[in-house]
Amino acid sequence: MQFTMRRRLVATSIAVALGATTLAACSSDSDDKGSADSGPVSLTYWAWAPGMDKVTAIWNKEHPDIQVTVKKQASGDELVTKIITAAKAKKAPDLVQAEYQALPTLVSNDVLADITDEVKDAEDKFASGIWQMVTLGTDSAYAIPQDSGPLMFYYREDLFKKYGLTVPTTWEEFADTARALKKKDSSKALTTFSANDSGLFAGLAQQAGAKWWTTEGQKWKVAIDDDATKKVADFWGGLVEEGAIDNQPMYTPAWNKALNTGKQIAWVSAVWAPGVLTTAAPDTAGKWAMAPLPQWSAGESATGSWGGSSTGITNDSKHKEAAAEFATWLNTDEEALAAMVKEGGIYPAATAAQTGSALSEAPAFFSNQPDFYTKAAEIAKTTAPSAWGPNVNVAYTTFKDAFGKAAKAKSKAEFGTALTAMQDDTVADMKKQGFEVSE
């Protein structure tokens, strides 16, 4: 699956504070001559997902009055920098593929337009938690969800059976499972805590109810060290300190080997995990299974997100209605979504597409779990709302540094210190940029 790894947003200098009443982009009421009935128009779409040109070709064939040209871009920091630079020069494209955590930065830089009226009929196509990611907690929409990365629990089905382990449904059971495995075979680890991809930790905090950035009037409130996130940090820090799980980073040759040889028998990851496992642990195909993420309290049903993107329309577009028509088609039309799954390998955000014909068969790596995508769709519906801010890059960078040191030291106390560092660095940076931050 298309996913986001090790990506950071670019911190930019903002001249005005971004508050609940100033989120609306300044040119949302600009003259629009791009409705489908006003004659042929040409739109430019910056995207990084593979195969978007082939998907767009379907639209162009069926809509001769609105022609879209895809210009392939790099993702992450590079795209954010490029689109902001283009917008300042009034040369931004009509549409842009934007990661969810990048939206506040793009809105605060007046890159994205308020498209609430243009896409109001699309909201019911998505889970409420997914739609909230493009509204930034307001009543306005600044993009349409494109793909998502709901978190799940992946485990070696054969080894769970061998060691007499039960799939955990709560985080308490997860911890007990990790300890039980260690007692039965000290050379094995249920999983690892990794500090080299901030997105996983953010998703786990999201599941726990964290809201790292919110607005109060004209001010931002930063609560990265809130009770929900402290609970997550203490939980993982405690498991690392007692040696119940490993403390090595993901995506390394050693991590790949641990997965491939069964030294690590589970992984908390997103719906795109099969693609990673195919490369990291090729010898284990057909031996893994997927289950819902463990919950903090029995009977609850919530998950977080790791990755995902949206389609936004820029303030520079002179064809806002036409662009919105295309963006809606791209992310809600059955044929378009099936093409994106086939050509780009994405997991669509639209609820109906998650059980559509394009995802009727399980990933080849999970041939032993034919209902993989049926279960994934049920999990995706429970995605908790996220709360991103304009300097996610700072929080993520501090996470990697501070939590990396804490994991290496195997110290629960240092996990708490690392979380405080994330909070302090993020607030300091926002003030430095000129944002008003409530204490």
Compute the number of structural domains.
2
End-to-end C-alpha gap? 40 Å
Helical fraction equals 25-40%
Q: What's the average pLDDT?
A: 90
- SSE order, as H and E? EHEHEHHEHHHEEHHEHEEHHHHH
Share of β-strand residues:
5-15%
Layout of helices and strands, plus pairs?
Layout: E1 41-47, H1 52-62, E2 66-72, H2 76-88, E3 95-99, H3 103-108, H4 128-135, E4 144-156, H5 157-162, H6 171-184, H7 198-207, E5 213-216, E6 219-222, H8 227-242, H9 253-261, E7 266-270, H10 273-280, E8 288-292, E9 305-313, H11 320-332, H12 334-344, H13 372-380, H14 392-409, H15 412-433
Can you describe what's shown?
The protein is of the alpha+beta class and 439 residues long. It folds into two domains: 182 residues, Periplasmic binding protein-like II (D-Maltodextrin-Binding Protein, domain 2), CATH 3.40.190; 200 residues, D-Maltodextrin-Binding Protein, domain 2. The strands form two sheets. Strands 1, 2, 3, 4, 7, 8 and 9 form a seven-stranded mixed beta sheet that branches. A two-stranded antiparallel ribbon has the order 5-6. Helix 1 runs antiparallel to helix 12, helix 7 crosses helix 8 and helix 14 runs antiparallel to helix 15. The two termini are 40 Å apart. The N terminus is likely disordered.
